[in-house]
Structure formats: C-alpha cells, structure tokens
Amino acid sequence: MDDRAAICWLHRRAGFGITSTDLDAAIARGPAAEIERLLAAGPGDVSFVDPWNDADLPLTPKDRTESMQAINTWLDHMITTKTPLLDRIAWMWHGHFVSALDKVKVGRLMVNQLRLFRTSGLGSFAPLLRAVTIDPAMLVYLDGATSTGDHPNENYSREAMELFTIGLGAYTEDDVKAGASALSGWTVVRTDGTSMFRPRRHDDSAKTYLGTSGVHDVDSWLAAIMASKALSGSIAGTVAGELLGSSDPAVVGGLATAFSSSSFDITTLVRATLQAGVAGSSQPIVLGPVAWLAIAQRVTAAVIAPKLRLVGLRAAGQIPMLPPNVAGWPGGAAWFGSSTVVARAGLAAHVAAAAPADNPARAAADRGDLAALAAALSLPADFGPATTAALAAASPGVPRLALALCAPEFVIA
Amino acid sequence: MSTTDPTLAFDGRSFGRRRFIQIGAGVAVTALFAACSNKHPLGAPSSSTSTSTPPAGTAAGGGPSSVPSTPGTFGAPTGTGASAPSAKTLVIVQLNGGNDALNTLVPNDGKYRDARPTLALAEADLVALKGNDRWRLHPKLAPLTTYWESGTAAFLPGIGFNDPNHSHFVSLDRWWRADDMAAKTGWLGRSITDKAAAPLFATALGSGAPLLIGDAYQPAVVLEPAAFTLPAQLSGRALTALATPRSADPLVALAQASFDSTVSAVGSFADLLNADPLSGDTVNYREGGFNLQEGLALAARLITADVGARIVVVSAGGFDTHSNQLVTHAALMTDLAAGIDAFMKAITAGGAADNTLLVTTSEFGRRVAENASGGFDHGAGGMSMMFGPMVRSGVLTDIDLNNQLDGDVRPTMDPRTMYTACLDWLGADVEHALGKRYDEVKLLR
User: Fold this and answer.
1) B283-305: burial string, b at 16+ Cβ within 10 Å, e else
2) What global pTM score does this model have?
3) Do A345 and B406 touch (CB under 8 A)?
4) Is CATH 1.10.287 correct for B6-434?
5) How high is the pLDDT of residue B85?
6) Chain A CB contacts of B251 below 8 Å
C-alpha cells in the first residue's frame, strides 16, 4: 500500500482514526516512523492522561449513574486521545481479559482494571497477566475473591487457560483444579477496592500444574503458564486477529516467534504485527461499533449526547464495560447482524447531524465531492462503485454524510 | 467431511476456536454464502454446510429442495410474509451460562442434599408436580405447574452430549451445530432452505443466534426493539442503494447483503412498533441478552402479529452461577417462570397456542456439589423443558446421582433427540439437519 493508505490503515486499525488535519503530517513522517511514534506515546509521556476522576466513582455497588458516566468518559477519551495505540491496545485487552460491570457492579473497580490495561498493556506479558489475575474486578468477575483452599472455585483458573492464555487443548481438567487451588486466597477489600492475599484462605500445598511440579501460589502458577509452549502462538493469534484480521499460520507463527524471543514483550509483538500489516499481511476486518463510532466522531468532530450514544451502542451490541460473556464481544460478521446495521444507521445520523458545518467531511458531503469525503473520513482509498452511486443519489449534507458512515468502505477497515 | 471453499476465512478450522465462536455469535455468515453464490457453484449444502451426510438435492441457491414446500409448511416460500398465527412456530429459550439443572428440577434423592449442604433447596419450599414423587420444582417455578397440570409441559433431566467438556464455548458450539463440529451452519439454520422466507421468519432476540446460521437465509437479530427503526435522515432506499452492484469482495458483499435483509426486517417489524410503541431508553445491565420477560413478551408479539415469524430464539444470560447461587438463581427462576407464563397466556389470547412449541436449552448443567463461593462450577448433564399441547407431558428422562461422571450429572439423553422432535413437529428434514434421526425417547404426542 502507498504511504497514505498505510497511515490510514494504521490509524483505523491501531487507533481511532485520524483527522485530515493530522493526516498530512503523518504521511510526511512515513509509516515506519508513524508506527514508532504511536508505540512511543505511553505512561510518562506528556500525552498520557488518565481521563477518570476517582471522586466521581464511589466504591459502592449502586453507582449506576456514575458507571454510565465512566463509560462515556472512556468513549470521549477514545475520540480525543493523544495516545491512540495505547488506548486501542487497552480496548483490545478489555475484550480479551474480560470483566463485566453487570457482575463486578462497582464502576471504580472496572475503571481501575482499564487503568491497568492502559499503563501495562504494552509492557511485558508476565507482569500484565499477574496483575490481571489478582485485579479486584477480575477477582469479582471470575469468582477468585470467594474461592478458598478447601473448596477452590474453578472459574478463573479455567477461563484464564481457555481464553486468556494458552487455549483449549493445552491443559487438562486436573490443571483446572490445580490452578484454582494455587490461586485460592486472593480477596477484595471492599472498603478501598484493593486486592489482598489471605493465607488462611489459601491452599499452599505443592501441585503439578501444566506438567510443572511444585506449583502452589500465584507466582509459581504464572511461571508455569509462561513456560507453556502454547502461550506465544495463542497471544500472537489474538493480536493478529485484532489488528491484522489474519489467522494465516505463517504470519501468526512469525509473530509468535517475535513475541517469545523478546521474553513476551507486548510492544515487540504489536510492532511486528503493525509492520506486517503495512507490508501487506493485513486482511479486512469489520470495525466493532465502539471503534467505528470513535472513528466517526473523531473525523467529523461531532459531539453527541451520552444517553443517545449508550442506547445506540446497546442496540448495536457493544457497550464498553458490558461484554456479553467471558469471551468478550463477537466479531467479524456479527457486526452485520440486522440490529447492528440499524443501530449503526441511527448513530450515523446523530453523528452526521452533530458534525460542525466547517468540518471537512461535512463540507464535502454538502458539496457532493466524494473524493474529498473519502479523504476527510480517513479512508485509505476512494469509495467503490456501489457506494459512489448511492452517495451521489443521496441528499446533500447530513443524509449523505450519515450514509457514508454506514458504507462498507467506512465500516470495514 | 469438509471441502475447500474460498470462504474458509469464515471456517472455524482456520481460526482458533474462540475466533469461530465470535464470528458465529452473529448470524450474517449465512449472507456471505448467499452473496457469493455466483462465485461458488458449490453453494449447495454439500459444500457450504460440510455436514457429515450431505443430502442430495437440497440447494441454497434455488435448486430442488428435499424439504416439502407446500405453502404453509416449514421451509416453504413465504416471501410475502404471509403467515397466520395458525402456522407452526418454534420458540427456543437459551439460558446462557449453564443453568443449574438440579436446583431447577429437583430430584427426591439423598445424594442431592449430601452434595449441597448449604445450597440444596429447602424441602418445604419445593413445588410438587402432581402425580410425580421423584421430582419437584424450584419454588419460583410455581407458575409452571399450571402447564404440568394441563398436560402441556415436559421436563428432560440429564440432557447433554456424551464426553462433555466444561468449556462454555465448546459446549455451546456443540449445541448450536448439533455436535457436527465440521459444520459451518447451525442445526436450525440449515433447515431453512428458502431464500425468500419472510424477513422475520427466523428472528433472534437478545443476542445473535449461531444455531440459526444457514446457507440460504439471513435471520433477523433484534437487540433493542424500541430502536429497531431507521432514522429519518437515512431511508431504507438510501441504505439499499449501497447494496448494488454487488462487490466481488466477499466481506463487502456480506455488508451489502445485510442492508437488504435489514431494511426488509425493519419494515416487517414496524407494524409491531406502530401498534404498541415500546419504551426502551434504558441501558440494561443483564449480560448475554434480554431478561426473559422482556424477550418472551416480544416473542409472543412476533408470533401473534402475523408478520411471518416462525422461529424465534430468545437469549438470556446470567446463568453462570459460580457464586451467590441462591439469590441469583431465585431471581433467574422468577424471571423464567414469569416469562414463560406470560408468553403462554399471550399466545393463547392470540390464538396461537395450539401451534407453538417452546423449548429451553442451556449449554450444560452445573456440578452436583457446591463450591466455597456459594455456587457451582461447570458441570455436564442439564435439563430442558418443552411446553405446548403437542408435547408428551411428563418427566421423560432420568438421571442417576449414584453414577456420576466425575462429580457431574452423567448425560442420559442426547440433545439431538429434542432437536429431532422439534424438526419433526415443524415438518423439516431431520436427516438434513442432524445427519440421522435421534428418537430414543418419544417426546411428542
């Protein structure tokens, strides 16, 4: 792909779109430099901000209104973030290491987990996994907080292997039980929302876990997971699926090697993935409603009412912090289900109506300049023939812009 | 058996399992096959379903069908949307997460109490099933005794596949695909052979329904009924203009096909919304779908409103009760009983009760013994319920807590037995959907 297409690809896949104002500078830097620039913006950088205020998030399970505000704060942050790759990766981990507000109930615990994904999501995998394992929201969501050594709760132990790390086929039912036992004793302190290890609730006996003997606590559990041959391919597959849309064994295998030979450094894995994408290993992916909406609001500068946005996203099937189950959201073709198509049209109409008249996309929609419209929407190429004809026939202004946001060229990245 | 197909990007075997599940959780894969039929001369089920016994002559693209196509029967052309409430309708209620079967239909068995010192339901609270000493219901299921006493309720304890796996997603997948793990379609979706079936012929409420993935027809998905309408600035005509000419790119073609099917479904749904507008401007916390009262109320409206709905899947989550079981499960049972009871009353009032079969499914039951969190971990054999005047009323299967499967209820009836009954009742082709018949237990009158 040419530099312009590569920059648009990068920001639609690994960020939340790019405005036409920012696009020219990024093209001038070139894709290789842009990947490094995106990877460099992290904690410690002036561009890194925490969008939430704990004073707005009581540690009570009845903070429904506050939780909805926290979700909206996150959506607003995605649209305006100066650290788009970091936030896009945090969004990926949120759909991977799943916890959900409807069971966790305390919005602050969910926000604290998201903070973990933002601060550690591009670091080394082992400390990230350790932190996720004893994260308070996770301890509530997958029941570690109530597990004891006498009667271990298997929920986290099973899902951590099946979905979060090594995948089906790499463990046995005995491993599920041994892992649950090794992780017993971690609880949540309700008054301050932290986790605490309580030795009296823990079974410290040595177990054989994933073929390793002597596993008895979270650190020996972690070491056994990290030693599993299945780990690098499984996580590389997740990242490749998310950013490349590819499951090509040659591509995933190469990424897995890069990952394991860097001592499981996530930045190394993501860099290799994005470089592979720019080099042509990318397959089309369907943007989920949240990423789609964030890109749409960013490129149109539209601000829409929080309640309208959450109702629309619910109908579309994707509200942040409320994934449908422990596997996260469905993907791909699911986003062409009729409910999502209808909800996307509704949200597109709100966005188009809220776009300022001087926004380049809105102005191009007014004029009927479809090449300029595609460019202003940060699309890597012009619209195809069906969309071109449909947009030409649409009414100028809001209807044309709304239709463009629903077009396959905008929904498929 | 599998065949190569350019759409292998959508084949579970070329992705990790999780990836397939995520794709399968929607329903639009089916449209890909339809959209690509020009590129795929093997668009018939023998290539696109990869069933182990591809039937002869059943075509996705309008060829001869092995399913009877008498107007008014299952799979028949009903493109006009004409469907009286007298047409047979199947409602599937999915209890996602793995419902605790043993605290839903409770066996009169000392082993039950021994394994559940704190979570066994109190003897005095259980609801009797008249004439049956072996089984009683959860206290909150009392409204369902009406149907037991009128002879229109069946219970199937021990339902589940052999060699169970405790994974939610493997288990769901086996239920959805009727245990044919090479199949790319769902057991019910591959029974729908008519491309021109009404837009709401098969409708999923609350979440996508992979069991409806088929070769010929794209089911509707409704997550937010009050919002299932197009905005003023984006007409159906404008959206469908995006759909032609069809792209050669299969994913773009899939997006294009979704505009056509969605605009049709919205049109059919509009009658319901106009007749009695819904209020839906709240954001629901319940994971995995509607609450059942909301979902089943909408299902009843779809069936009685004469919009061509013949298969309705209602999904509800929250059944993964690893902890705090007593309170959570009581709320779930209250919702389930109220939902089914209100549904039955609504379709009776609408004249559709004689022709509606409702069945419940869940990916597995839970462990026999409780854990330390006041809950139950993933188990094996579960329990399905069937409601309608066509069912053989009774507790039709049994379990043996003296012969457990490593702490789980050992499955005693293959779910495909229930599928066979559903398909038989609909008049669909059982061998096409399931490979062969499973009728070791008689479930219908």
Assistant:
1) bbbbbbbbbbbbbbbbbbbbbbb
2) 0.88
3) no
4) no
5) 55
6) 284, 286, 408, 412
